[in-house]
Amino acid sequence: MPVNDQSLTPNVLKTDVMRHLTFTLGKDAPHASLYDWRMALSYAIRDRIMEPWFASTRRTWEEDRKRVYYLSMEFLIGRILEDATINLGLHEMAERTMAELGQDFKAIVGDEPDAALGNGGLGRLAACFMESMATLGCPAYGYGIRYEHGLFRQRFEGGQQVETPEDWLSQRNPWEFDRPEATYIVGFKGHVETRDGREVWVPAETVKASAHDTPVVGWQGRWANTLRLWGAEPTTLFDLERFNRGDYTAAAEPETLARTLSRVLYPDDTTYQGKELRLKQEFFLTSAALQDILRRFKSGHGDLRALSRHVAIQMNDTHPAIAGPELIRLLVDEHGLSFDEALPVAQECLGYTNHTLLPEALERWATFTFGNVLPRHMQIVERIDGWHRRTFPARPHYVGIVKHHEVRMGELAFIMSHKVNGVSALHTDLVKANLFPELDRLHPEKIVNQTNGVTPRRWLKMANAPLARLIGETIGEGWEDDLDRLKGLEPHVKDQGFLGAFDAAKRQNKVTLSNWLGAECGVKVSPDALFDVQVKRIHEYKRQLLNILETVARWQAIRANPDAGWVPRVKIFGGKSAPGYAVAKEIIHLINDVAAVINADPLVGDLLKVIYPANYNVSMAERLVPAADLSEQISTAGKEASGTGNMKFMMNGAPTIGTLDGANVEILQEVGRENFFLFGLTAEEVMKRREDPDHARKAIEASQIMQNVLQAIAEGQFSPGQADRYHGLVHRVWHHDYFLVASDFDAYLAAQAEVDAAYKDRARWLTMAALNTARSGFFSSDRTIRGYMKEIWGVESALQD
Ligand code: 26V
């Protein structure tokens, strides 16, 4: 296995790059572009993954190991080249080799487009999980959709978000292998017939799902798994009969239907809309994956009733929840099991992860749509629901999968799984108490917690080379796949030399970032300022509004008293709004408007800057996270299921200013109260406060600062050409403040003042920052995956022996 493979001398890598440049790209070095060099290096690195990849697959077969199948509509991978290079232990060698070839390694890896096949947290979690499963030697396949267009690109025009299509496949993707031999037919619509006493689904439309495999290599190249993404293709290229009749548009219909299925990622993770295309995408992914799983099982085993001994299927939220009925359909209709045999087999295989409590994001399909697109599945869903009602007579009448002419995907996923999990301790409690209280009572052992994590290889080793180097020098190697070892940094936190080096690493990252921001946004910021970062999707519950209101308050206070010994701050925002989410778009507009006024104010100068680089994505996160001094995690308590950005910041030595929400609770526990800027209402208090219809007005009337802020915005101080631009927004804060911005405002201000005080005390601040890194070991996704393997999947690592 190529762990720091000695046989791969720089010369060999150089030869490989040149060979690919010549024979794969067909380019002569003097004429090669950055793209050509990137492709040549990517192929040379990819070659090194083949051996561990084949060996892993071979061993899984030979040892007849149980496999994990991770079904997800989203995989937010980002760039692959540098990550693969690091995991293969080839990073320095690749850097050197490319330098010898006269090429800049950083520019080469930066030329790769992000694979942005996800919206945010849920998709990025799936990508971290794939990397951790490979690192842990957990035999696994990720199944997803090969969207032609990932998440849209964001631009700002006059401070407002404008979306343009993303185009990652316009260049060749060197990481994927087409597998035309692995294709399956997926049907839609039509009707169900009874033939010889059996139900037979006769679909009216069919498409072909065709596999595209990307290898995912773990730390030190010890194991590699497969991410299999399905592309949709027509089953018949076009209707020749119609074509010959001259009906050219109709002749191309099968092709049009197929292509739209894997054309574009749904960009709205806020509000659920019962769109037929979305249901078709979900079934397309799920059916192709399950057919593939059964084919693989059948090629090694006979009796499908033993499926769950060999197969664990995880549903990433309810998006693939059609897996329950589809698995039953395949087992019964195609493989001859009875319903009573198939049901427990499916349940023992399936697990369901819940990622949100927001009622507007929970999937429910009108029975009309569901029955029209998937008529056979509608029958099976009714049968499952009937079985559950009869088997658990204590089930209240208002509980069930099909209610009020809707199919509820959460209830379906719950009932069809042997385990259901939340993604942080608090979230899991709320799933039990608020989302599925009755089902929890009927199935008391089913709901378990698996607190999220992030991969330290990408988010520390790769993104933060200066800090990773310092960690290595201080505690030695081996922390990368055993993150609890970071605890070993704690004794050094008292050492001035170590703190100075920690400071220097952070400063280096801040200098790099300010140069990039200068080039990208045209705003110069001082690396001596406190870098205060909030990056995530724009949602009301995540409360970017609270942050920008505090920014206005700070600006007013600085103007009123410029010599009060202010700590210079750079407020950095990043994130996209769903295209149809008007309120989120208004918040983006406000942030940009406030930035324009503050950044142009000579009275304030370097004491306050507001920067919002457009098109936040995984690669931008890799720049921002290592350079952050302060991590903003300020959601309304009870709304953020976990958060994973919060963990990345902690690992990179940025203390959190945050509410008691999601995994913040566990971060606080690990890092200690004195190293966390805690503020705000608790989840319980939030629910209580909402009972008072006047909560916002009362909070605002009690806060002169808040009144001043809202007045400045309402007067048009930030929208000089259009004074009434934010009347609606201000009105909503006063009268419809569902996310309790007003109620938490003063507490947030006080916490920010504590941040300033702490930052001024250099020794105190650096100690806090370093302790955040030292105590972040729990948040490695390796720990999370070990939990899933043991408590949900019943799978063992192939690397233990
Ligand atoms: C819902 C929908 C509705 C249908 C259209 C497309 C779509 C896409 C996504 C979603 C739900 C997104 C839920 C989500 O991303 N939750 C986040 O999951 C993270 C990983 O567990 C967690 O850290 C975040 O707190 C949570 O918001």
Automatic annotation (TrEMBL):
SUPFAM superfamilies: UDP-Glycosyltransferase/glycogen phosphorylase. Keywords: Allosteric enzyme, Carbohydrate metabolism, Glycosyltransferase, Pyridoxal phosphate, Transferase. The keyword Transferase applies. Its cofactor is pyridoxal 5'-phosphate. Gene3D superfamilies: Glycogen Phosphorylase B. One of its GO terms (molecular function) is glycogen phosphorylase activity. It catalyses: [(1->4)-alpha-D-glucosyl](n) + phosphate = [(1->4)-alpha-D-glucosyl](n-1) + alpha-D-glucose 1-phosphate. One of its GO terms (cellular component) is cytoplasm. The modification N6-(pyridoxal phosphate)lysine is found at K648. GO terms for biological process: glycogen catabolic process. CDD domains: GT35_Glycogen_Phosphorylase. Pfam families: Phosphorylase. Its EC number is 2.4.1.1. PROSITE patterns: PHOSPHORYLASE (PS00102). The keyword Transferase applies. Belongs to the glycogen phosphorylase family. Phosphorylase is an important allosteric enzyme in carbohydrate metabolism. Enzymes from different sources differ in their regulatory mechanisms and in their natural substrates. However, all known phosphorylases share catalytic and structural properties. This is Alpha-1,4 glucan phosphorylase.
